[in-house]
From TrEMBL:
It comes from Gasterosteus aculeatus aculeatus (three-spined stickleback). The keyword ATP-binding does not apply. This is Lysyl oxidase homolog. It comes from the Eukaryota. GO terms for molecular function: copper ion binding; protein-lysine 6-oxidase activity. It is an enzyme of class 1 (oxidoreductase). One of its GO terms (biological process) is collagen fibril organization. Its EC number is 1.4.3.13. It holds the Pfam family Lysyl_oxidase.
Length: 789
């Protein structure tokens, strides 16, 4: 009896407490009157409390409605799990400025009233908003309070933002999905075959939707391949497969026979399986067109609460999906399945997201975000081996690209095989700029990779000592450490990716300054990654543990970040500025001291004679989402008296002249003797200047220019014979500093040298350089450049 009373009180007391705890909204006195009052006195407006101010960063804002561009629209706020609008009463340009900055635009150019972008739905969250223009969020402005409004959606406010992004802005604008997530919040596949439950990703099973505290099924009457296509896309799969319906019929028949037999002993696992067959149908029918990005966007017929046979003549819907190559377990299947070679994602912090780039005439370019939507984004996601699009991002949210912009106003229907099959407009430089580069976030399958690794001891969840989960011969699981020896940024990149924490800012070899957990045993050493792996298990490592510094303080650690830099060389400038100079030895003492000449220079008859130098300018842009800063602090920079400057990085760029078979015939390197902002795009301010021992780095949207006429900006080709070669320039070659994309750090050019003159042709960044281009160059040497008189 006492136990029963305790249980009753335990259930009743929290309910009572929940009902008697007033919320801010509930305690306000409604001011609704039969006659609308257009304005209120300041005394009737509420000022946000400290608790609200502490939550400012959590408020989500989006622009919706139609017709509109990416930088304008109806304002909607996400509050208490629901999207709602703002009434236009007392709205001003000050309000618009606060909202536009929240969305990552520099300012507002105007605002709209009377639902210019169409009427919203649901709540009208704010009314009589009065900002002074300096607030960091709209919720810090005076208003009538959340949900307290006497407006209708005919008075929904909108904003027009200046089409210019705040440099380095991280958060993304949410593009409307047109999906009522109050109906369906989560969808999963429940595998029926025991073996399938152990393998990830789960590619086949019963479709289930989250309902209250459990899961419910969907009736398969009228179920089509289009419905399956939508479900697979939501779960991160690009394609669907045909389900073996006979297998599931036999399985259900066998289960029914087992239940009907008298005195049949069923194991605990068997009982659980049989109980699961008692389906609870939440949705009676689904009628997707196949282009939807969410099941909730399809026409749905929900089962009635009191219905006894919600799926008469049918059973639970089952789907089977085909994963993309990145998520396949079989290497044989990976080889058979190909993704697009002329579309790629760049600048994304996580798998399946990034700036959309397309390849045309052997050169990569971007896509303008005018009319960019989820249907077009989904086509890109699926052709790259991911599911449908989770977000279609505008305004250069994944960094600004370089080079041409090939597409504008892309209008995919959603079923196209490639974005190249969608209608689009060819553009001019007046139509779009790189601040409007389109990007995507794709649905990806759940792989469970984050379950076997964790970070401990860090100050935030983005940093800490790396610990791995292992199982012994008895199946007992325990956590262990990675040896910090040889640990670098490449290995840290894999850890951050595996944990879904974005980029690696740094790989740490000593973690003594982080609080330790109870884990003290080293279990892995000699880890060597390329930086592109999905998990540490895919990297090379020692078969047997070999760690000279086995103390806990020498365990490997990482520092992750949502943003990082991305350096790209201006290839055309190299081609335009290349020339040959015979420079007297008496002018090369400083260069020799910094090891900028070939080895044969040491045997020269100094100060007589000369060295033949291949010279060029290099302009290095930061197109990432964070500043590029040297890993070493200024206290460890090296002063070089001969040139009168500090080196913040030992090697910032590396120059090579290679033969056709890839062997190096001459080389040079450049220390970062003055890493600074030479110039920036309009609206971006310089932050780094070397003068007076200033900070060194390259700001997002800026570039560092090394002119052809400064020391070490060359390759010493004194000993090189005439012939055809490849010029290669690599930025940040040792990957000392984290970047979002190291593949675009290298530039290659075909180089023809006749002993007196030099030609460069087909200069390309990263993987755009091809052997086919090299063959073409031998037939057509290209443009004549400056040469020796």
């Amino acid at each position: 009896m006492q136990l029963a009373w305790s249980l009753l009180l335990g259930l009743w007391l929290p309910c009572c407490l929940a009902q008697t705890t007033p919320s801010n909204a509930a305690t306000r006195t409604p001011t609704r009157t039969p006659t609308r009052t257009p304005t209120r006195t300041p005394s009737s407006l509420s000022t946000p409390s400290a608790s609200v101010q502490s939550q400012t960063a959590q408020l989500k804002v989006r622009l919706s409605g139609y017709p509109r561009k990416h930088n304008e629209g109806r304002v909607e706020l996400f509050h208490q799990g629901e999207w709602g609008t703002i009434c236009d009463d007392d709205f001003s340009i000050h309000n618009a400025n606060v909202l536009c900055r929240h969305l990552g635009f520099v300012s507002a150019t105007g605002w709209t009233h009377s639902a210019k972008y169409g009427k919203g739905q649901g709540k009208i969250w704010l009314d009589n908003v009065q900002c002074n223009g300096g607030e960091k969020s709209i919720e810090l402005c005076k208003s009538r309070g959340w949900g307290n409004s006497d407006c209708t959606h005919d008075e929904d406010a909108g904003v027009v933002c200046k089409d210019e992004r705040i440099p380095g802005f991280v958060d993304s604008n949410v593009i409307e999905t047109q999906a009522d997530e109050n109906k369906i919040e989560e969808v999963r596949l429940r595998p029926v075959v025991a073996m399938s439950r152990r393998k990830l990703p789960i590619t086949e099973g019963v479709v289930e939707v989250r309902h209250r505290d459990g899961w419910a099924q969907i009736c398969d009457l009228g179920w089509t391949i289009k419905n399956t296509h939508v479900v697979c896309g939501m779960l991160g799969f690009p394609h669907e497969r045909k389900v073996n319906k006979n297998f599931y019929k036999r399985l259900r028949k066998r289960a029914a026979e087992t239940l009907s037999r008298p005195k049949v002993t069923v194991s605990a696992g068997g009982r659980l399986y049989l109980e699961r067959q008692k389906n609870h149908f939440r949705i009676h029918s689904v009628a997707c067109s196949g282009t939807e990005v969410h099941l909730a966007a399809c026409p749905l017929e929900f089962s009635k609460a009191n219905a006894t046979s919600a799926c008469r003549g049918g059973t639970a819907a089952v789907v089977s999906c085909m994963p993309g190559p990145l998520f396949m377990q079989s290497n044989g299947m990976k080889k058979k399945t190909r993704t697009s070679s002329n579309v790629r994602l760049k600048g994304g912090a996580r798998v399946g997201e990034g700036r959309v780039e397309v390849l045309k005439d052997n050169e990569w370019g971007t896509v303008c975000d005018d009319r960019w939507n989820l249907q077009s984004a989904s086509v890109v996601c699926r052709e790259l081996g991911f599911g449908s699009a989770k977000e279609a991002l505008t305004g250069g949210r994944m960094g600004q690209g370089m080079g041409p912009i090939y597409m504008n106003e892309v209008k995919c229907l959603g079923q196209e095989k490639s974005i190249w099959n969608c209608p689009f407009k060819n553009i001019t430089s007046e139509d779009c700029q790189h601040v409007e580069d389109a990007a995507v976030r794709c649905n990806v399958p759940h792989m469970g990779l984050e379950d076997s690794i964790r970070l401990t001891g860090g100050r935030t969840r983005y940093e800490g000592r790396v610990e791995l989960l292992r199982s012994d011969a008895n199946g007992t699981q325990s956590w262990g450490l990675i040896c910090g020896e040889t640990w670098s940024t490449k290995e840290a990149m894999v850890v951050c990716r595996q944990l879904g924490l974005g980029y690696a800012n740094q790989g740490v070899q000593e973690t003594w300054y982080w609080d330790s957990s109870n884990v003290t045993e080293m279990i892995l050493s000699g880890v060597k990654c390329t930086g592109r792996e999905m998990s540490l298990s895919q990297c090379q490592h020692h078969k047997a543990l070999s760690c000279q510094k086995a103390a806990v303080k020498f365990a490997a650690g990482v520092i992750c970040s949502d943003t990082t830099s991305d350096l790209v060389l201006d290839a055309p400038l190299v081609q335009q500025t290349v020339y040959i100079e015979d420079r007297p030895l008496h002018m090369l003492y400083c260069a020799a001291e910094e090891d900028c000449l070939s080895k044969s220079a040491a045997k020269a008859n100094w100060p007589y004679g000369h060295r033949r130098l291949l010279r060029f300018s290099s302009q290095i842009h930061n197109i990432g989402r964070a500043d590029f800063k040297p890993k070493a602090g200024r206290h460890s920079w090296v002063w070089h008296a001969c040139h009168g400057h500090y080196h913040s990085m030992d090697i910032f760029t590396h120059y090579d002249l290679m033969s056709a078979n890839g062997s190096r015939v001459a080389e040079g390197h450049k220390a970062s003797f003055c890493l600074e902002d030479s110039d920036c795009h309009e609206g971006v301010s310089k932050r780094y200047e070397c003068a007076n021992f200033g900070d060194q780095g390259i700001t997002v949207g800026c570039w560092d220019l090394y002119r052809h006429d400064i020391d070490c900006q060359w390759i010493d080709i004194t000993d090189v014979r005439p012939g055809n070669y490849i010029l290669q320039i690599v930025i940040n070659p040792n990957q000392e500093v984290s970047e979002s994309d190291f593949t675009n750090n290298a530039m290659k050019c075909n180089c023809k040298y006749d002993g007196h003159r030099v030609w460069l042709h087909n200069c390309h960044i990263g993987d755009a350089f091809s052997e086919e281009a090299e063959r073409r160059f031998e037939k057509y040497p290209g443009q004549l450049n400056n040469h020796i008189p």
